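Re: that chain you flagged

S.,

Sorry for the slow reply, it's been a week of failed gels. I finally had a moment to sit down with the sequence you sent. For the record, here it is as I used it:
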Amino acid sequence: MKPSSTPKKQLTFQSKMENWAEGMDYCAIPVPAKITKALGTKSAVLVMARVNGSEPFQVSLFPIGGGKHYIRVRAKVRKTAGLKGGDQVRVQITVLDRAKVVIPQDLMTELKAKGSLKDFNSLTPGRKNYAVRRINDATLPATRMKRIQETIKLSREMAKGRNK
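Prediction finished late last night. Pasting the structure tokens below so you have them in one place:
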């Protein structure tokens, strides 16, 4: 089932942050059924989110079956916003267009330098968004560069696989 949610749709809801894995720092927020219904899809939905007025962060609402979605909130966001499992939260989401991928300048520079821009552009929008989000989530410059190199390698491998 392809997502039919409209990009730039803005929705707000209240929910309770849940600890998802005993002994692990993994929290997610259940998305109310009326929000899932407004999204118009049971598939993953790429959004820009804010939790209790946090800085905006890009994330996918992930489906868990039965027409339900959750939104994962990374430790960095929780720490900055002072959130923990069990907290009541106000969530604001803006649905993004998966097909629109904003490539960070450092990734673009490396893709061009290595002649891999065409390979990267041949990836599905979901893979491109995931790669960019992973790069942007890096906190250390060395980690960021490592993830850029991994993205270039993956792009090349996938392009080779399609050309066989």
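What I noticed first: The beta strands are 10-16, 18-19, 27-31, 45-51, 57-65, 68-73, 88-95.

Talk soon,
D.
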